[in-house]
TrEMBL record:
Residues 1-55 form the HTH lacI-type domain. InterPro entries: HTH_LacI, LacI/GalR-like_sensor, Lambda_DNA-bd_dom_sf, Peripla_BP_I. Gene3D superfamilies: 3.40.50.2300, lambda repressor-like DNA-binding domains. It comes from Granulicella aggregans. The lineage of its organism: Bacteria, Pseudomonadati, Acidobacteriota, Terriglobia, Terriglobales. This is LacI family transcriptional regulator. GO terms for molecular function: DNA-binding transcription factor activity; transcription cis-regulatory region binding.
């Protein structure tokens, strides 16, 4: 059975069958249902390998992420796939688990499947991997790494702006002793957030004691252990900024285990704004990275950096994604100053 037989049975054009298979919104629900019924009757399954050999294009986009267990990435995957399907593309997903060696294996899988482009949403990328794609003229978009070149685009998350928003919020609440739990400092994105915290501390004339900065692993267990080390300090900070929401959630567990309250005894702020963050107790104040915007510009970059006729790569682009501050209830005034903070805020409102 082939696509022509499906079109004949469904009484539609082969183009309509193709659009239905690709999930195009241009096909009416009734027509799409008729096409799917014809495909089921004929036991038809599209041979994507044959299509790739015939057209030179697989209509397949690769998406490489760091950690499928981190809710930020499934939310990004969903947004990426929703947009890709609307463009008639399928998605092949690979997970590196923050391992540079495993990244190369993921890249090999993408090449074997003859993907039309790859979005690499992870920091653990070597120059060798970048040259791999350059030689094969496959469009690539990187997150927070690489430099724009023919066929290569880059998405930059403005982490410093997000860290600055969080720090300003805490200092306005009266906090001067602020701790930071970073991600693994061998990752570019984690290092960037750490540097932003140090620079913001300097601008705000905060002490930024060495022991106030603890390294985590972007996961709850790392946040939990880092927070235990912070709570064991002789002079405990009044607020903690974390490198991502999973770290913050782990840190909250350590705080509660120590018999302390959030934010009455210690304030905490996350980074990413995964869906779970709004449902912790108290709800987590955090910095949102708009994953839908990341997915949209990633696909825009992939589809726009290869000439559809010559297949030659066009110049890549550079995109900047602005984070959004999400104040909730996990950050409050310095312990013992809640009443004076409310009074200062009321004075400002009535000034």
């Amino acid at each position: 059975m082939n696509i022509k037989a499906v079109a004949k049975l469904a009484n539609v054009s082969t183009a309509t069958v193709s659009r239905t298979i690709n999930g195009s919104p241009k096909v009416s629900p009734d027509t799409a249902a008729r096409v799917r019924k014809a495909m089921e009757t004929l036991n038809f399954v599209l041979n994507t390998n044959a299509r790739a050999l015939g057209s030179g294009r697989s209509n397949l986009l690769g998406l490489i992420i760091s950690d499928i267990t981190n809710p930020f990435f499934p939310e990004l995957v969903k947004a990426f796939e929703d947009i890709a399907v609307s463009q008639g593309k399928e998605v092949l997903i690979a997970n590196t688990d923050y391992d540079p060696d495993r990244t190369m294996h993921c890249v090999t899988r993408m090449l074997q499947r003859k993907v039309d482009g790859v979005a690499i949403m992870t920091s653990e990328i070597s120059e060798h991997v970048i040259s791999f794609f350059l030689k094969r003229k496959i469009p690539v978009v990187f997150l927070d790494t690489g430099e724009p070149a023919p066929g290569i685009s880059r998405i930059n998350i403005d982490y410093p702006a997000g860290v600055e928003m969080a720090m300003q919020y805490l200092t306005q609440l009266g906090h001067k002793d602020i701790s930071f739990i970073s991600g693994p400092l061998n990752l570019n994105s984690a290092k960037t957030r750490y540097q932003a915290f140090m620079e913001s501390s300097a601008r705000e004339h905060l002490s930024a004691k060495a022991e106030y900065v603890q390294e985590g692993n972007h996961r709850p267990d790392g946040g939990y252990r880092a927070m235990q080390r912070i709570l064991a300090l002789e002079q405990r900070p009044t607020a903690v900024l974390t490198s991502n929401d999973l770290t913050a959630i782990g840190a909250m567990g350590a705080i509660f285990e120590a018999g302390l309250r959030i934010p009455q005894d210690i304030s905490i702020i996350g980074f990413d704004d995964i869906q779970l963050s709004a449902f912790t107790e108290p709800p987590l104040t955090t910095v949102r990275i708009p994953h839908k915007d990341v997915a949209r510009v990633a696909i825009e970059a992939l589809l726009g950096t290869q000439d559809p006729i010559s297949k030659e790569p066009k110049d890549g682009a550079q995109y900047k994604i602005q984070p959004i501050f999400m104040p909730r209830r996990s950050a409050g005034p310095v312990p013992g100053e809640a009443h004076s903070f409310k009074r200062r805020r009321a004075d400002r409102l009535h000034a």
